[in-house]
């Protein structure tokens, strides 16, 4: 049955099953003297249900009412399923077996951290991602990781668009992939950080997306949408909200210089930054200014972090029908 014929089916259902039940009950309650031809048995059909008894018959009235209530509950149940079906894009409902992100994989029972294939709605060929299935309830799709300085992050536009690095180690998933994921629904962003004393902190944003409103996201510079901060690392990203992505070979920032070239990274620079997680791996305190892996509200502009991991997750609860 096509989904678009289902409301009609529901209306028909309401009319033929539920409505006569109520009419019969109402007639028996308020017009008790209307003569009856036959009195239906408990197992009678729906059509023979609507005959009118001479007297008020309490057990019969109750059975009619309970029939109506059962029908009502069934109808409400169907209506709820209809509602879920039609609003599924807003609730991040997965209609099939192909996971759209690590949230879908988590909802389908996967609990192991590691590499999985995901198939976003507008990227049907899919790609591999690292899923964090353990942090704060799991279901996170990792979009960036720094941990040992083994990968060069001072790269140009094409690298940042397509992605680079090793999925199990240091990597950038790619603006194209992050865009394809984040336009599927409402996503949140979590950033886990660690310094060289093994202290950890995190920043979480209830809203996240790149190029959410772009007709051509590449041409538009994959602008960042971020909001609703929580966590203990402090907010070093809200000032980048609405900014386009800048690389050393593509200047989309608000500075007269190129912030990516100046701070040896690639980010949604304004003029220029309060965070620089794609900066150089400078291993802790450094004398140069703001060109390491910085999260200014936690460790300032001259401390390059040991570990950084950015990950996203759909915010609505996962609902599965099948
Ligand atoms: C940090 O953790 C690593 C690995 O667990 C350990 O080898 C190292 O000694 C720790 N460093 C400090 C400063 O505690
Ligand atoms: Ca500039």
Helices and strands, with pairings:
Elements: H1 6-30, H2 58-91, H3 102-107, E1 114-118, E2 127-132, E3 140-146, H4 157-162, E4 164-165, E5 171-172, H5 175-182, E6 187-194, E7 200-210, H6 217-220, E8 224-231, H7 259-262, E9 275-276, E10 284-285, E11 294-295, H8 296-299, E12 303-304, E13 307-314
Antiparallel strand pairs: 1-2, 2-3, 3-5, 3-13, 4-5, 6-7, 6-13, 7-8, 9-11, 10-12
Helix pairs in contact: 1-2
Bound molecules: 2-acetamido-2-deoxy-beta-D-glucopyranose and calcium ion.
2-acetamido-2-deoxy-beta-D-glucopyranose binds at residues 197-198.
The distinct bound ligands, ions and cofactors come out as: 2-acetamido-2-deoxy-beta-D-glucopyranose, calcium ion
- One letter per element, helices H and strands E, the order comes to HHHEEEHEEHEEHEHEEEHEE
Shape: elongated
Instruction: Work out the helix count.
Output: 8
Strand content: 15-25%
Low-confidence segments, ≥5 residues, pLDDT <50? 1-5, 31-48, 317-322
Overall radius of gyration: 29 Å
Largest sheet: 9 strands, antiparallel
Q: Average pLDDT, to the nearest integer?
A: 84
Give the total of beta strands. 13
Structural class: alpha+beta
Distance linking N and C termini = 16 Å
- Into which percent range does the helicity of residues fall? 25-40%
């Amino acid at each position: 049955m096509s989904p678009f014929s289902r409301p009609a089916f529901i209306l028909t259902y309401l009319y033929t099953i539920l409505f006569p039940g109520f009419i019969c009950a109402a007639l028996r309650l308020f017009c008790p003297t209307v003569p009856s031809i036959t009195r239906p048995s408990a197992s009678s059909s729906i059509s023979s249900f609507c005959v009118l008894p001479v007297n008020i018959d309490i057990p019969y009235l109750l059975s009619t009412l309970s029939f109506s209530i059962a029908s009502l509950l069934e109808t409400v149940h169907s209506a709820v399923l209809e509602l879920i079906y039609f609003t599924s894009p807003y609730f991040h409902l997965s209609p099939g077996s192909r996971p759209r992100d690590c949230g879908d994989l988590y909802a389908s029972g996967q609990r192991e951290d590691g590499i999985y294939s995901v198939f976003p709605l507008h990227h049907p060929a899919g790609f591999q991602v690292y899923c964090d299935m353990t942090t704060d309830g799991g279901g996170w799709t990792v979009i960036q990781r720094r941990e040992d300085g083994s990968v060069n992050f001072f790269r140009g536009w094409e690298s940042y668009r397509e992605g680079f690095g090793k999925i199990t180690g240091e990597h950038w998933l790619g603006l194209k992939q992050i865009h394809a994921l984040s336009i599927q629904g409402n996503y949140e962003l979590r950033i886990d950080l660690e310094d060289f004393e093994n202290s950890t902190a995190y920043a979480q944003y209830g809203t996240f997306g790149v190029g959410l409103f772009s007709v051509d996201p590449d041409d538009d510079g994959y602008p960042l949408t971020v909001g609703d901060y929580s966590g203990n690392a402090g907010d070093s990203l809200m000032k980048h909200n609405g900014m386009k992505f800048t690389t050393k070979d593509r200047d989309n920032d608000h500075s007269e210089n190129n912030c990516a070239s100046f701070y040896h990274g690639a980010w949604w620079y304004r003029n220029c930054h309060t965070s620089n997680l794609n900066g150089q791996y400078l291993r802790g305190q450094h004398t140069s200014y703001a060109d390491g892996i910085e999260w200014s509200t936690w460790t300032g502009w001259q401390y390059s972090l040991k570990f950084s991991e950015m990950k996203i997750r759909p915010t609505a609860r996962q609902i599965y029908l099948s």
